[in-house]
Amino acid sequence: MVTVLKVTSNFATAAMDNDFRLDGSLTRFTHKDWTCSNLRKYANANTERQNAERLVAESLRLQDEAEAQTKKTQNDVNKKFDQRLDDLKFWKSEIDKKLDDITEEIDCLETFKRRLQAALEDCYNPLNIAKQCLLFREHRQGIDLVHDDVQKELLKECEVIEGAIALLTRTIEQSKEQLRRNRKAKYNLQMDLKDKLHGINIDEYCQQLRSHSSDIDYNDAAVKISPKSVSVDEWQAFSNKNIIKAEQERETSTNLRSLIDGILQQIANDMKQQGDAVNLAFSRRISETRATKQKLGDNLNKVHQQILELEENISRLLIAIADKEQPLKLAETRLEKRDFRPNVELCRDQVQYRLIKEVHELRLSIKELQNCLYESNCTMKKLLQNQRDLEADIDVKAKSLFIDEVECMGLRKSINIQAY
């Protein structure tokens, strides 16, 4: 390399000195100059050739490295796509499962809510019947308008049913609120699932793209991190939060369904138990009233018989009193006539004393018969009053029996308490 530079320098100096002759004609080179020139050209060609060889070798190396790096990068990117798609599909499957669970829970809770509404609707008929029975029993008369066991049980039945209605109403509102929360959790899962599906579609499309694909192009603006993007941890936390929230709501909904099932069973048991208590009280009261009415009827028959006997007795007393009038007249007439006996004939003989005694006896008998007649008439009035009272009380009992047995129990036969 040094030799080539030295020859070139000598040749340049000779050329400068012998460039032109004085007459301006071209100067001829020496053989040495020619040789040096050739050597210089050889050296320059060799140098450029060596530089070109090195450049070609470097280019091939760079091409091989770039190709290897590109393949390595693309392979790494494809692996990252595979990992990303696995993550997406994993979270998609988790969301799918929770979405199925919360959807099934919503359907179940809807069924329980309909059971609550059906139970609530069926509470109004027994309540109206209980109130109607109370209204019917207000038409009882006299002493039968009593605050008896039936009245107490009917009032208690109204209280039980009204409490059941209030509890069912609150539980329905609670189930509606839980359904709203379930649907919100379901909506969040659906939106997350929709985004996951969209993300899977985009990443699968990107994963399938190759360098020879027809729909690829330059896009300098795409080489950036979007300010709206989130970290992987935030991405996982978002889906995990939706899944956890849906699971919490599902568990709460499941517990609520268990509570609803218990409430429906308890309400049905309470209403049936109280309904049986009311019916039992009605049966006892009807039996008691019927027995009392029977006893009153028996007493009425006895009073009626006694009235007939007393009427006969009064008739006999009247006859007996009338029968004593003529003997009394006879005795008094005899005494009067004997007062006209003359002088000493007007003596107090045994006839006189006996006639006087007879008059006293007859008068006493008449008085006793009249007293007995008076007492009989007084007793007759009392018996007649007692008869009217018994007849009125029997009518009251008949009215009470009609109210309790026909009107109330007839209504209560339509009550059908069932489990929901």
What's the short version?
The protein is 84% helix and 0% strand. With 420 residues, it is mainly α.
Features:
420 residues; mainly alpha; 84% helix; Tektins
Can you lay out the helices and strands and say which pair or pack?
Elements lengths: L1 H16 L13 H107 L11 H60 L23 H107 L11 H63 L8
Keywords: Cell projection, Cilium, Coiled coil, Cytoplasm, Cytoskeleton, Flagellum
Subcellular location: Cytoplasm, Cytoskeleton, Cilium axoneme; Cytoplasm, Cytoskeleton, Flagellum axoneme
GO cellular component, one term: axoneme
End-to-end distance: 109 Å
Strand content: under 5%
String of helices and strands: HHHHH
> How does the helix and strand content classify structurally?
mainly alpha
Q: What do the pLDDT scores average to?
A: 89
How helical, in percent, are the residues?
over 70%
Number of helical stretches of at least 4 residues: 5
Large-scale geometry: rod-shaped
Q: Biggest sheet, in brief?
A: none
Could you name the ranges where pLDDT drops below 50 across 5 or more consecutive residues?
Answer: 1-22
